[in-house]
Design goal:
- By secondary structure, this protein is of the alpha+beta class.
- It has a domain at 4-9 and 37-101.
- It is 30% helix and 27% strand.
- The chain contains three helices and five strands, in the order E-E-E-E-H-H-H-E.
- The chain has helices spanning 40-48, 58-65, 80-93; strands at residues 4-8, 14-19, 22-27, 32-37, 97-101.
- The strands form two sheets. It has a three-stranded antiparallel sheet with strand order 2-3-4, with no helix packed on it.
- A hairpin with a 2-residue loop joins strand 2 and strand 3 (22-27).
- Helix 2 (58-65) crosses helix 3 (80-93).
- The longest helix is centred in the C-terminal third of the chain and has 14 residues, at 80-93.
- The chain is globular and about 35 Å long.
- The model has no long low-confidence stretch (mean pLDDT 87).
């Protein structure tokens, strides 16, 4: 099975405003605003640091945010990579990141 890879949308596709512990993210193409809590906006920041068009695995995103966050799952023993993969998949379903699959 192909591993999912994730990349950022162009910077012009998202308008972001910090609201204390939340972040409002306006998705320009759809006209929908989303409210996200930490560390999800930081996952978007990590992807935005990549060169345009570059995609990475959840483990690579975890490495980029691990210094700032202790990522834990809802279930005991859930791997941090699985947690990041779930959050990235959710962001992909909202259209806030691009999901690609290895061939």
């Amino acid at each position: 099975m192909a591993l999912p890879r994730f990349s950022a949308l162009p910077a012009s596709a998202l308008k972001r405003v910090s609201l204390g512990g939340l972040e409002a993210i306006y998705h320009v193409p759809s006209g929908i605003t989303h409210l996200l809590a930490e560390p999800v906006p930081d996952l978007l920041d990590a992807l935005a640091q990549l060169p345009p068009g570059e995609s990475v695995t959840p483990a690579q995103v975890l490495a980029l945010v691990a210094e700032r966050f202790d990522i834990v799952g809802d279930e005991p023993g859930e791997a941090p990579e699985a947690v990041v993969a779930e959050r990235l998949a959710e962001l992909g379903a909202l259209g806030l990141v691009v999901i690609a699959r290895d061939a």
